[in-house]
């Protein structure tokens, strides 16, 4: 979901001005396995006009308006291709390809997912080599004996037959063991050199795995593009899931991206309060569940970060919670005053949030009341900024500068 996905300069307008609204699918229910239909329908639907459909929101002081181009069934992530088209994941188990001509199309070949609660089909990202090989990465909750597990897969977006499909899908990583619980994390970010990737892995509402040095849960993972532990990981020679760990002590990381200087930034949901913006450093432990700037849901206190200096403290935190999701470091020209800022969505906070970054420090800047849960934030190849609304009729919306 992010700045690392917007590495080309092709214009998006010709592709997305003609998008049609997608109809919402039917939820498969708590804990069910959703397997996509092998041959999706591709019927044409009416296209909106060249400016999209205006969307109202409470923040009258915002320097932007919103235009909606499509709606989805519980969307999780949007990622833009180099030619300006977009891929959107729906948690029940569908990928939509949005392009010109008002034809949002189901992509075939999506793996079966364990849909329910916070699980399902999650993040999606074109490979750094997409222009050459049409590679796609996706994360999801994978069905298994005893529950579900976070999985990362690679496939090729094949459009040669007229109907797009994910071909040659290969699972690169499975978090083990499977089990119950949400908080998958699941966000994919590519290293600035395009030679490796990072994957955020939540602690599945189990707390203690975040401090388990042999568990991939509650960690930021670092691996090669073909799914092997990266050789520069702190414990690369130890084998097992430990070999993948880049940082530890995370709760539910729903945003992960690099800035232009190569710093890796992450957002994660705290418990009752204590949502965080973190600068992710190799081998560091961020303290969950030993420390937090929030409290447990039952009201019992958790020691603050400053009581345990051995843990890395967040650069910013929010109390009460905003439930951050979706993160970009903005580099476009529509809002020049935001360049270099972290832009993130808020779900329970129903807001769009800006934090100013100065090297490795951060400060709160703006928080606009959107009146809706913002699930993802993405920057398109032309530098425009897009939001994805959470829910069973979640809209894909573009920020348009006022004036």
Description:
The chain contains two helices and 27 strands. The model is unreliable at 1-49 (pLDDT under 50). It has helices at residues 13-16, 130-133, and strands at residues 32-34, 53-55, 64-72, 75-80, 86-90, 94-98, 105-107, 113-115, 121-126, 135-144, 147-158, 165-174, 185-190, 196-201, 219-224, 245-248, 252-258, 264-269, 275-280, 316-318, 324-329, 342-346, 351-358, 361-369, 374-379, 385-389, 394-401. It has one domain (3-27, 45-401): Neuraminidase. Helices cover 2% and strands 41% of the residues. Residues 34-54 have a biased composition (Low complexity). Pfam families: GSDH. Residues 1-20 form the signal peptide.
Can I get a quick summary?
The chain is mainly β.
Q: Topology of this structure?
A:
Layout: H1 13-16, E1 32-34, E2 53-55, E3 64-72, E4 75-80, E5 86-90, E6 94-98, E7 105-107, E8 113-115, E9 121-126, H2 130-133, E10 135-144, E11 147-158, E12 165-174, E13 185-190, E14 196-201, E15 219-224, E16 245-248, E17 252-258, E18 264-269, E19 275-280, E20 316-318, E21 324-329, E22 342-346, E23 351-358, E24 361-369, E25 374-379, E26 385-389, E27 394-401
Organism: Stakelama flava
Biased composition (Low complexity): 34-54
Domain Glucose/Sorbosone dehydrogenase: 72-398
């Amino acid at each position: 979901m992010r700045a690392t996905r917007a590495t080309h300069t092709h214009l998006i307008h010709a592709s997305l001005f003609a998008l049609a609204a997608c109809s919402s699918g039917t939820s498969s229910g708590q804990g069910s396995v959703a397997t996509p239909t092998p041959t999706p329908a591709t019927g044409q639907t009416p296209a909106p006009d060249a400016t999209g459909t205006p969307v109202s929101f409470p923040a009258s002081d915002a320097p932007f308006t919103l235009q909606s181009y499509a709606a989805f069934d519980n969307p999780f992530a949007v990622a833009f291709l180099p030619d300006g088209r977009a891929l959107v994941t729906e948690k029940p188990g569908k990928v939509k390809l949005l392009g010109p001509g008002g034809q949002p199309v189901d992509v075939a070949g999506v793996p079966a997912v364990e849909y329910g609660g916070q699980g399902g089909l999650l993040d999606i990202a074109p490979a750094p080599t997409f222009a050459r090989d049409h590679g796609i990465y996706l994360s999801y909750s994978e069905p298994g004996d005893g529950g579900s597990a976070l999985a990362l897969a690679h496939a090729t977006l094949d459009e040669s037959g007229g109907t797009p499909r994910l071909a040659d899908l290969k699972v690169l990583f499975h978090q083990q063991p499977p089990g119950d619980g949400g908080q998958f994390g699941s966000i994919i970010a590519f290293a600035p050199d395009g030679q490796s990737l990072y994957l955020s892995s939540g602690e599945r509402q189990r707390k203690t795995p975040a401090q388990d040095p042999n568990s991939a849960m509650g960690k930021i993972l670092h691996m090669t593009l073909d799914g092997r532990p990266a050789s520069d990981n702190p414990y690369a020679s130890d084998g097992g899931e430990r070999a993948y760990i880049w940082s530890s002590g995370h709760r539910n990381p729903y945003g992960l991206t690099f800035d232009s200087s190569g710093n890796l930034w992450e957002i994660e949901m705290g418990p009752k309060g204590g949502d965080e913006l973190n600068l992710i450093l190799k081998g560091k432990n961020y303290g969950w569940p030993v420390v937090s700037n929030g409290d447990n849901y039952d009201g019992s206190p958790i020691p603050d970060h400053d009581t345990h200096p051995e843990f890395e403290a967040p650069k910013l935190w929010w109390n009460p919670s905003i439930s951050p999701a979706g993160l970009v470091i903005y580099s476009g020209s529509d809002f020049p005053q935001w360049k270099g800022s972290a832009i993130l969505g808020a779900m329970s906070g129903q807001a769009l949030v800006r934090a100013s970054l100065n090297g490795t420090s951060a400060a709160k800047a703006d928080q606009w009341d959107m009146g809706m849960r913002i699930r993802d934030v993405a920057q398109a190849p032309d530098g425009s900024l897009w939001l994805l609304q959470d829910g069973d009729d979640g809209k894909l919306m573009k920020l348009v500068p006022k004036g």
